[in-house]
Amino acid sequence: MVTLTFYAGLKDYFPADMNLGEIPSDIGSLRQYLRGQKPLASALLGQCRFAVDNTFVDEDHLLRQGDIVLVIPPSSGG
Predict the structure, then answer these.
(1) Among 2, 24, 67, 72, which is disulfide-ready with 29 (CB 3.0 to 4.6 Å)?
(2) What's the rounded Cα separation, in Å, for the pair 63 and 2?
(3) Where does the source fall among the domains of life (predicted)?
């Protein structure tokens, strides 16, 4: 199982925390899976960064059982 945590505007589409029993192979596959689940969030998901265990990762980062994945949309502020 992989635990996903969503932030900011993504909470309009997904619960704050979500568990996946079937694990996509990598972050790129996870992004595609999420786009398929919520097509209206596709553009926002395309701009998001992903972190695994509190470290930003690339699209080809392999996912493992027990990973905690943070899905972080762009932010601004001051």
Answers:
(1) 24
(2) 8
(3) Bacteria
